[in-house]
């Protein structure tokens, strides 16, 4: 999805304050979830083209309804915005993928069976699916990681600690692995029902 910047000036210009014709445009943009930059000689707003441009059209209409005599605007693509955001997205996905034994690869290096990772309407990478054995190893590694963070084995944690462990495991995708609840229950020394209760509680709180 293209990202654009819209620079706009609403006339007539009122020195020292924003007239109601300017405020009307800004209010529409803010109600649509955007955060316009207001300057002494003009205003600007940036966002995804598909969301922003319809909001800009409504803002212009509201401005004329409030007494504007004219609106000057320029729309420009923001170069590199999707790529920069995509890198942050892939960086966030990698720890979960690694913990589950999978790999995040660049879009140009995806195999035919890779799961596409889509960001802002573009395929920016792929998730190479692990073999079943890799998934199991990934869950074991993730449990060990959580134990290291909490300072002890899952079985040795108190109830609050076990609830926290379940939350951390869930946040990192552990329960996407088949039979993960059973394995975590065994590691904690509790029943599967208890793990499901912890899991439901943490998801409800989230």
How does this model look, in words?
With 206 residues, the protein is α+β, with helices and mostly antiparallel strands. Helix 1 runs antiparallel to helix 2 (49-65). The chain folds into 3 domains: 3-77, 2-Layer Sandwich (Alpha-Beta Plaits); 82-130, no CATH class; 133-205. A 4-stranded antiparallel sheet has the order 2-3-1-4. It has 7 helices and 7 strands, in the order βαββαβαβββαααα. Strand 2 and strand 3 form a beta hairpin.
Brief overview:
With 206 residues, the protein is α+β, with helices and mostly antiparallel strands. It has helices spanning 20-31, 49-65, 81-99, 132-150, 159-171, 180-188, 192-205, and strands at residues 3-11, 37-38, 43-48, 70-77, 103-106, 115-119, 122-128.
